[in-house]
Amino acid sequence: MIDKSFLLDKLDEMFPSAHCELNFSSPFECLVAVSLSAQTTDNSVNRVTPRLFSTYPTPVEMAKADIKEVEEIIHSIGLYHNKAKNIISLSKAIVENFNGEVRLDKKTLTSLPGVGIKTANVVLAEAAHIPSIPVDTHVSRVSIRLGLAKEGDAPEVVEKKLEKIFPKERWIKMHHQLIFLGRRVCSARSPQCETCPLSVQCKEGKKRLSTKGK
Ligand code: SF4
Question: What is the pTM assigned to this prediction?
Fold first, then answer.
């Protein structure tokens, strides 16, 4: 397994200001933005949310929204029909069960329609700065390649393994850095191991570079 101090130091050098790339200004907006971000880019979400948030600024307005009008606003992003349905349903649940308030605890968040552990973790980390490690496809892939998790580990298993290895105070920043690593250097199809500063200790990087050298 890659040495954890080496990894954290290199991630700090590579991505000193890694951050959440979704735009939002309240826990509710954060929850909606993350719900919209599945299988699409943060930029495409950021393009539709200004109008969405100004039309439906709170769960109360969103709960009463006409689905066709929400779809019209978010139609440029993938899976917009389901996403429109989800954000209206989760708003209704917030209004009916929690007095219109987005409660920042994992159990409550994951009880909302369409909200899984990863989405809940992002909201906890970004809206409340509660140490969390949301495991998306990038975090999962790079964790396996670095030898921090195993091929076939479910996201929840990767999350638990990372939580055990790294100090709590680094969880949020490190998770952003792992996403940046996955997006910018260690892509699914063509990881740039030749130039990646982690390759001297990375399990997958060493394997790929030794195969190339033969
Ligand atoms: Fe990814 Fe290669 Fe870097 Fe390892 S060395 S993190 S596989 S790009």
Answer: 0.92
